[in-house]
Design brief:
about 210 residues; 60s Ribosomal Protein L30, Chain: A; about 20% helix; alpha+beta; single chain; elongated
């Protein structure tokens, strides 16, 4: 017999969530539809080199003012004695005053140092004081060293050639105003040349000289 006609069934309704997911899903680009990358831009000339400016340094137009001159104290207790490499100035305890003889000897040392431009003046200053107070003797020794430095500078020695060391209290065993055993007095300033040995031992005899029999 003749086939029975199929009943037209309505298409199943799609859920709203599935339709929204299908609309939100990105569509894959078709092959050959991608835009090519732009060609690289080549500058017509290389960039200029960077300019590094030097730092600005304030250069003083005038040299620094020299220290004040050391006044002559006629009643200053002190003297100057010779050393193998310079001289030693002794001071009264607690004082940095200098008399005319001491200042003249420092000026004479400056005249000798002017003839040796490669040498420096080394100033070692000490001062007596209590064992429990190291600050006061160190300040006093610094005042003495700077006084000698001022005399040298006014005599023509550049400050770069002068080295001051404020020692303060000398090694233990030196009572105020008294000299330690086999040592200098505690209140003194040694002014020596850097190119000479302050205390050189006695030279040994030459090989040609006869040596005494033991």
């Amino acid at each position: 017999g003749a086939p029975k006609p199929r009943a037209n069934r309505p298409a199943p309704a799609r859920s709203p969530a599935r339709q929204a997911a299908k609309q939100a899903a990105p569509t894959a680009p078709k092959a050959g539809a991608a835009h090519p990358a732009p060609p690289p831009t080549i500058p017509a000339a290389p960039p200029p080199p960077p300019i590094i400016r030097p730092p600005v340094v304030d250069v003083p137009l005038h040299p620094p003012a020299p220290p004040p001159e050391v006044p002559v104290k006629a009643d200053a207790v002190g003297r100057a004695t010779d050393l193998p490499a310079g001289l030693r100035l002794t001071f009264a305890p607690g004082s940095a005053d200098m008399n005319a003889a001491m200042i003249d000897r420092v000026k004479g040392f400056a005249a000798i140092l002017m003839q040796a431009p490669y040498a420096r003046a080394e100033i070692d200053a000490t001062a007596s004081g209590a064992a429990d107070d190291v600050s006061t003797p160190r300040r006093l020794s610094l005042m003495r060293g700077l006084a000698v430095r001022s005399i040298l500078m006014h005599a023509g020695i550049a400050s770069t050639r002068i080295y001051v060391r404020a020692i303060g209290v000398p090694p233990p065993g030196a009572a105020p105003g008294a000299a330690p055993a086999n040592g200098p007095p505690p209140d003194h300033v040694d002014v020596t040349r850097s190119d000479m040995v302050a205390s050189a031992p006695s030279p040994s005899p030459a090989p040609s000289e006869p040596r005494p029999a033991p």
